[in-house]
Amino acid sequence: MHRYKVLASDPQSAIVALLDQSGRCHIGRATGAPPPPGALLVGDAPAVGLRSLRIATGDDPCPVSMAVIDCHPVAAVCIATGM
Known about the structure:
Layout: E1 2-9, E2 15-20, E3 25-30, E4 40-43, E5 49-51, E6 53-55, E7 64-71, H1 73-81
Antiparallel strand pairs: 1-2, 1-4, 2-3, 3-7, 4-6, 5-7
């Protein structure tokens, strides 16, 4: 089971920037309400496509469709926040 920390998220677009347990960043879109920055997620290994993730502090599902794997953290945050 892989662990992720939400670096940034946009509630309107549902785009999220995730930092995984290996220190790599990924960009995706939550299929529901995006988790807030700082939230911890656990689930499938990073790969392009829909990944089954959930909030680490409970069993709330948080599926994310990952689009970019292993990108620069600053770029990931900029894309997620539209800055």
